[in-house]
Amino acid sequence: MFRHTDHLQFQAKPEKPDPVYARKLQELIGGAFGEMTVTMQYLFQGWNCRMPGKYKDMIMDVATEEIGHVEMIATMVARLLEGAPATESTRAASADPVMAAVLGGMDPQQAIVAGGGPVLADANGMPWNGRYIVASGNLLADFRANVAAEAQGRVQTARLYNMTDDPGVRDMLRFNLARDTYHQNLWLAAIEELKADGLEGTVAPDALFDEEYTEHASQLWNLSDGTKSAEGRWAGGQAPDGVHEMAFLADPAPLGGPGVPPPPDPLLYATYDGSLGKPAKPELGTETGVVGKIKKAME
Amino acid sequence: MFRHTDHLQFQAKPEKPDPVYARKLQELIGGAFGEMTVTMQYLFQGWNCRMPGKYKDMIMDVATEEIGHVEMIATMVARLLEGAPATESTRAASADPVMAAVLGGMDPQQAIVAGGGPVLADANGMPWNGRYIVASGNLLADFRANVAAEAQGRVQTARLYNMTDDPGVRDMLRFNLARDTYHQNLWLAAIEELKADGLEGTVAPDALFDEEYTEHASQLWNLSDGTKSAEGRWAGGQAPDGVHEMAFLADPAPLGGPGVPPPPDPLLYATYDGSLGKPAKPELGTETGVVGKIKKAME
Amino acid sequence: MFRHTDHLQFQAKPEKPDPVYARKLQELIGGAFGEMTVTMQYLFQGWNCRMPGKYKDMIMDVATEEIGHVEMIATMVARLLEGAPATESTRAASADPVMAAVLGGMDPQQAIVAGGGPVLADANGMPWNGRYIVASGNLLADFRANVAAEAQGRVQTARLYNMTDDPGVRDMLRFNLARDTYHQNLWLAAIEELKADGLEGTVAPDALFDEEYTEHASQLWNLSDGTKSAEGRWAGGQAPDGVHEMAFLADPAPLGGPGVPPPPDPLLYATYDGSLGKPAKPELGTETGVVGKIKKAME
Amino acid sequence: MFRHTDHLQFQAKPEKPDPVYARKLQELIGGAFGEMTVTMQYLFQGWNCRMPGKYKDMIMDVATEEIGHVEMIATMVARLLEGAPATESTRAASADPVMAAVLGGMDPQQAIVAGGGPVLADANGMPWNGRYIVASGNLLADFRANVAAEAQGRVQTARLYNMTDDPGVRDMLRFNLARDTYHQNLWLAAIEELKADGLEGTVAPDALFDEEYTEHASQLWNLSDGTKSAEGRWAGGQAPDGVHEMAFLADPAPLGGPGVPPPPDPLLYATYDGSLGKPAKPELGTETGVVGKIKKAME
Amino acid sequence: MFRHTDHLQFQAKPEKPDPVYARKLQELIGGAFGEMTVTMQYLFQGWNCRMPGKYKDMIMDVATEEIGHVEMIATMVARLLEGAPATESTRAASADPVMAAVLGGMDPQQAIVAGGGPVLADANGMPWNGRYIVASGNLLADFRANVAAEAQGRVQTARLYNMTDDPGVRDMLRFNLARDTYHQNLWLAAIEELKADGLEGTVAPDALFDEEYTEHASQLWNLSDGTKSAEGRWAGGQAPDGVHEMAFLADPAPLGGPGVPPPPDPLLYATYDGSLGKPAKPELGTETGVVGKIKKAME
Amino acid sequence: MFRHTDHLQFQAKPEKPDPVYARKLQELIGGAFGEMTVTMQYLFQGWNCRMPGKYKDMIMDVATEEIGHVEMIATMVARLLEGAPATESTRAASADPVMAAVLGGMDPQQAIVAGGGPVLADANGMPWNGRYIVASGNLLADFRANVAAEAQGRVQTARLYNMTDDPGVRDMLRFNLARDTYHQNLWLAAIEELKADGLEGTVAPDALFDEEYTEHASQLWNLSDGTKSAEGRWAGGQAPDGVHEMAFLADPAPLGGPGVPPPPDPLLYATYDGSLGKPAKPELGTETGVVGKIKKAME
């Protein structure tokens, strides 16, 4: 269960409105790596964490912090939109380059749909969606996704930092940049901790190594021009997992045969000339179909 | 430019059709971490790479390999669908539990839309989309996303490996698992190489540390019950970036004031009682609006 | 079955083209509360209405009217785009602030994709989709959704009314505003009629009151700072349904235990330390799994 | 800012796992009217509320409660999935109707993607998205949307209540049904309060009545067969807003002319025979184009 | 403007309910080539048609017919769902293979969301969206899209025809198949008519032939193994447009240089080693940037 | 399997950057008919082609070419963005109309998300998705879709050609226009070849003519005002398939009865007055339900 405190985690007061920037900030609310993504990603990871204790607790700490980040940026957007043009059309723009820029650069839905506030979408108005989040239950794989999300988020925040010179906006972004730095370190530290606790290794998941084809777990397949890709750390020496030796496959040949699909079911009306032989009967489990043979075997 | 060889990178021959499994395999084609995602992610990273040479080359190698993985799994799906029920309805199911299971578990669009082949969608039929890919131009941030993608991909492949006992399917998945292992090691090695080459550090981007609020770049904000989250590596000691000291903020208080949006533009018809004072005039840049003042200052 | 008359329900003639406004009007075609939504919402409600007669007839009347509204606004958009810049690039804009505004504010797909006409998308180019519509079969719940849709639609239309001073556009919007007023009244009246006819009550659905926990059907849980939320009509006195007494729960405590998920199936490779005990066997319905016990009980 | 308590708002313990039902419950997490929608809808309404005090406070109370509802149902889903089949394929189903049903009815992504936990999607696996939420800044319009959302939510919960006989699941749903009842009453009471406070009327927004065409604000246009739609409350008498008189337009005729778009810009290559006259020059604002005339007038 | 008649265009009465088939039929309502697509595609083409007369009229005829097709199939879906299982869970399925199949194969949202009726989505529950429609204003290009849509639609209808043996369903589909046949012929005839009227040629649009590089308008680039693709009609002889000669390019070489992007703006934090030289200054139009030079040239 | 050559298929060098045009070009990357669509459409058609030989080979040739087209345009976009404004806000625009236009017209995600490169989205920032592609297995239906895609693609390219006067951009587009011309001819020729080979006819699929209602396979239903639609080739004479006679149905009447859905299951809480009789019991297959009768009949 959650509780709310009406003070913001950090101040979110622009010195001056800037409706064009208000659109850009939407990326940090509803973009693929915005605050909404990390909020829901960490909440679902926390709720799905199978170990009560330090990991689950820490994930819930950060998740709960992130809801407050959405709140901060949503408030900032509303303030950046104060006094934005709600009434004018192209005609007015012809005498005023500021208005021309603002009319062009604004998100029209912030006015028409949200009444001068934020929407739950990115800088191009595409709504946030639930496929952005990663919560697989494998903490190593998920923490790697978390490092990646915080890294992308900090790159975007850094870019946005340079797109304004408003002292109030920059004040808030200085806080956000710092949290993104901490959170990158946090998830990297948590990966170390998983190893130290003997819960995970380097490769996720730490399983099926004996099933997979080891000879294919080490080579870079050189499939583009030249061999410059042989010059990197990835083309030789011990792999980061401490187990595999890395190698370079200079001139790889396909290992499989031609990728021909089977003869089609005639009742699906795929174009066919019979060159692959007679198709299996379409009815499931009757005389000659393969699934029919399974069924018979089961009986 | 690309060229195609009609042999598959690796064999993709199921021993027997299994239309229910054919639906599950869609996750590896069109899921958020399926082969389509890594294909397009690496292609766009490669095309956007600003350094001719080993990095760009290597990225294009792997990208080109991944198109062939989509091809392998697409072929496998078509073969798993051979002889699947194209004609029967509920009535037939009442006498046949195999058909009952298959009718229920199949992806109906594989038959109706694709004529017995794969669709470009995930295991629930949701189409793949371009927001799944990550290509920011910052190679450190992108390689972290690549590790994460390969980790999630291998977790999903491992789960799918256990969901079949078909020797032919497992044969292909043993290859895929191995490539996912190599690719995780590859991107981890590439992160080491970026540091060794002096191109990036630990935190992405390696910039703006002097602008961000350092005091907020180190603390875990304890926002959920208890203090078990203080027990982890992330709550003390040197951060993985070798620069910051990590710490635990046991009882954090908000640093900002209440998140009140400004008085609304009356022509947007937000409900308002005047308690925040008189709203700025809505027209942009005229007398009293804040943006108006900017414009005047510029003049 | 439907028939079409080639006259518009109401005039849609702008005095002058305005390609920036043409983009904004897209919200009324393909936005979440645009004419397309009410068209399809009412059609599906009508087709799914289980009572031949006045309700079904009325719903189909309004649904059929709304198709004509999409037509009116689509025509208006095409006319607003007449003579819009189809050829120029940034270079031309540098000498002409009108063009600067127009180039920036236009929807590029109206030109590139639709050849100077409307698209089936909102003001940010996001396509309309079928999840916007509400047609549950419960007329009370659906009519409440209809009031809400007409209210949001009229709010948006009112905002758009202020964003133009073109007499022809305003002429059409005066008609639309009036229809939105009537339709709000219509659906409110229809809710009264449902009650008068004894078909529904105040709360949707009018069922399961004896099953739900009555003590939880009356209290506001105070989960944010302060107690100002106790001052409203919702915190005491008789509820609008005439049955419940409303109340204020000043300091609510959670009623459930910790939200711990069960021990994971090992073949799904979730990170786990055994702290929740031994996981159930993953195989469905075999010896020790819980679903297995169900099956046995059934046998 | 938010804080988290690790106890659930209400108990979420199924008596027995039921993976088929776990898929259906996804509708209450990530469906258009699931808990995620009301959570984000109320948060954005609260953050965008322009009046500190009882309304904003109450909205934040309910919003904060709803995050806890997502948590409860997410936990329930994980528990319903305990022991679900993670390994079997069609072959096994042929001997076991339970497994046949479960294999067919499960959400494959709950296993493959989430490792035996919930996803942020609906019962068909479609991800939740930000266009589901309504937060226009007009509280009357938004509260009507809130009543509608709670009504649809309670209808869906009631349906789901009948789809299980598990005492633990029903226990939780009894709580949810009760909260949905209270919340419907709450938003209806809040609409009364808005009127009592003189902030809003019956029709949203309470503006532009003098601009809209009054004669069109009262009539039902009879556009489908018969005149049964004249028999309802909406076809005569005073409207719910207490201002308009409702009426029935038995045989409506279109009020506009034919909906002909203007002659096309030749450089957009629309098919055209010249029957509408010579098209305007495509260049913006040059000699003969209409926008050109605007520009000249401005000069 | 439109009018509605309450009789269906054709009968839609299944002999018996079949809830599994009801899900499959959703493809014909809300799939990419379902009735909703052709309805909205033809409506937008008609509204955007720049020639009053036979073309516009005919497009509106077919568009108006298609709304009635959505109506027919929506009605059929509701009837197929009669008596479908609204209450049972996995437990009941264990004793009943029919229920097992039905529970697995049903669309859960038809019950939970639509109350036993159709949804505006496809067979996998993915909602219909506005990007499915094609309405470019170029009638040749659009009529080709119409032939394609009717062809895909008839292929899908034919597949669905074989998936049922219900005489009532087949009765309706016999009508739909026939209309799809007529509509394919219709759009092919309309393409002939466009040519006969001198409005369009074979290639859309019939323009810019003198601008495009003629030598590249005739050759098949052989980019995959072997030369079997040289054996087709497309590799030699006169092209269908009667103008070009077709040819086979056996061993094509790239015509461009390496695809290297320019040096990056340092404030966007792309990883970079300086190998492409010094990046242009990021500020727009100031001293050394290229856009700056344009601006100067304009001045 | 695929291989990559680092030279572009054709040169992609703009003379000057133009960030506004860079946004428009996104339509050719990630729009519904952009290069990404044809790439994936042809790949899936090729992988799903059931006839080794000239068709499959040719499809793979073109598919492989199209990946290279995505590459060309992605490179062009990065180059058009060189020196684009990465730092400025509204304030700067007030003194500079070029910047005003550019700020307004740019895609903010090209900077914030992609670091000055392309995104996998269209000109409005909507991501490309897998439902854009058509690969039904019926080659006639698919080739018709391919002609349509190339026609729409060439129309869009032609429009974009007129939106720039940059010689380098036009150089590349002259190549693209030519390939679109060839590809339209190619797919038209391939349709001829399918007929010549006796694999398909004119209508797709070439089946079920004896099942469909022939009398409905020939008439235009006149459902809109007037009879001008009788004047076209489609209203009389032999149909393009050489079999049917086309005709005009001047005053069509509905052939079906009213579209009334069945009485609702009471446990789904649809509003109902009993006018349709007693609903079937909701439990599947038990005593009185219709599906129950099927089950009994099967037994």
TrEMBL record, chains A, B, C, D, E, F:
Residue numbers binding Mn(2+) 1: E35, H69, E150, H183
Keyword annotations from UniProtKB, A to Z: Calcium, Manganese, Metal-binding
Co-factor: note: Binds 1 Ca(2+) ion per subunit.
Gene Ontology molecular functions: metal ion binding
Swiss-Prot/TrEMBL cofactor(s): Ca(2+); Mn(2+)
Residues binding Mn(2+) 2, per UniProt: E66
InterPro entries: Ferritin-like, Ferritin-like_SF, Mn_catalase, Mn_catalase_dom
UniProt keyword annotation of Metal-binding present: yes
Manganese listed as a keyword: yes
Binding site for Ca(2+): D57, D61, N222, S224, G226
Family recorded in the similarity comment: Belongs to the manganese catalase family.
Protein name: Mn-containing catalase
Biological source species: Amycolatopsis xylanica
